[in-house]
Write a structure and sequence with these properties.
By secondary structure, this protein is an alpha/beta fold. It contains ten helices and 13 strands.
């Protein structure tokens, strides 16, 4: 499929920024939208945007996805081949404090995206889901072929709802949709509310770091470059209806209509304490740890099965936490002096 123009929602966000850079380098025109909200420091979002704005082929529109008339106008003004939806109210813990922002962005906003795609001949919608949809599941590694019906946070529930809504549009209108369950994305230009960012800031300031579940956490940490490579390959891999799909043994990852779900994770479980040790080595400084109980809405472990990603687009993330955290710390020192 030849792609001339792509819409990226959340273009000033962590993943959106890196994806826009990559697609522009591939000579694809990018229209980026973002509402530049203050969930975390808007100055960081603006700094990312300032690197994109001078680039040939990039157009930015400040826009909230929940604004239906504005979204309708955007889709009418442009002819998008592909839409990549990365805009969302992020964060498991914040969803306990401000549930309405999750519904506005992740549910209402997503319907506006689906409607825009449906009425304007978009050929492929790729959207960010999350490893959080696995919720109460304990079978490891997490597989896209397992049911995910027990979310433990509203954030996870909104991401699961995106998968269901996308499937409905694939069924009703033949819209090709692909959902991507990202696993703990980290790297330079990352979100300041993420643990590795908070840890780095605290360690350098000689402040204690908050370590939840007394450190007994495992995460599938995935470096940003691996996420982007996976997304780009999926963009070009438009899902087809599976004629062999068995309604008696319904597979949640595929369908009789053009719909697919993939995990993008490092396929490697890391102990949180080991992750902190590597970060300490990169910083050349030990952390003071404030060991705390598990937070509500959180899960003790994540671990991605990426067999479908490997089989369908020939890619498997490989960046080690040593390499990834090293690059993050180098960027952090330069950016924050």
């Amino acid at each position: 499929m030849q792609i001339k123009k792509i819409l990226i929602t959340g273009a000033a966000g962590f993943i959106g920024f890196f994806l826009a850079r990559r697609l522009l380098a591939d000579n694809i025109e990018v229209v980026g939208i973002d509402n530049l909200n203050d969930y975390y420091d808007p100055a960081l979002k603006q700094a990312r945007l300032d690197l994109l704005l001078p680039r040939k082929g990039f157009t930015f529109v400040k826009l909230d996805m929940a604004d239906r008339p504005a979204m309708t106008k955007l889709f009418k003004q442009h002819s998008f081949d592909v839409v990549v939806n990365l805009a969302a109210q992020a964060g498991v813990r914040y969803s306990l404090e401000n549930p309405h922002s999750y519904v506005d962005s992740n549910v209402v906003g997503f319907v506006n995206i689906l409607e825009g795609c449906r009425h304007n001949n978009v050929r492929h919608l790729v959207f960010a889901s999350s490893s959080s949809v696995y919720g109460g599941n304990t079978k490891m590694p997490f597989s896209v072929h397992d049911n995910v019906d027990h979310p433990v946070s509203l954030y996870a529930a909104t991401k699961k709802s995106n998968e269901l809504m996308a499937h409905a549009y694939s069924h009703l209108y033949g819209l090709a949709t692909t959902g991507l369950r990202f696993f703990t994305v980290y790297g330079p230009w990352g979100r300041p509310d993420m643990a590795y960012f908070l840890f780095t800031r605290a360690i350098l300031a000689d402040e204690p770091i908050n370590v939840f579940n007394h450190g007994k956490m495992k995460r599938d940490f995935t470096y940003i470059d691996d996420i982007i490579e996976g997304v780009v390959r999926v963009i070009h891999h438009v899902p087809l209806a599976d004629p062999e799909w068995d309604r008696e043994k319904a597979d949640p990852a595929t369908s009789y209509c053009p719909y697919h779900i993939y995990n993008i994770g490092n396929n490697q479980q890391e102990d949180l304490m080991r992750f902190i040790e590597v970060l300490e080595d990169c910083l050349g400084k030990k952390a003071k740890k404030n060991l705390l109980p598990m937070q509500n809405g959180d899960v003790p472990a994540t671990y991605a099965n990426v067999d479908d990603l490997v089989a369908d687009v020939g890619f498997k993330p490989t960046t080690s936490i040593e390499e990834g955290l090293g690059k993050f710390v180098e960027w952090y020192r330069q950016s924050y002096k």
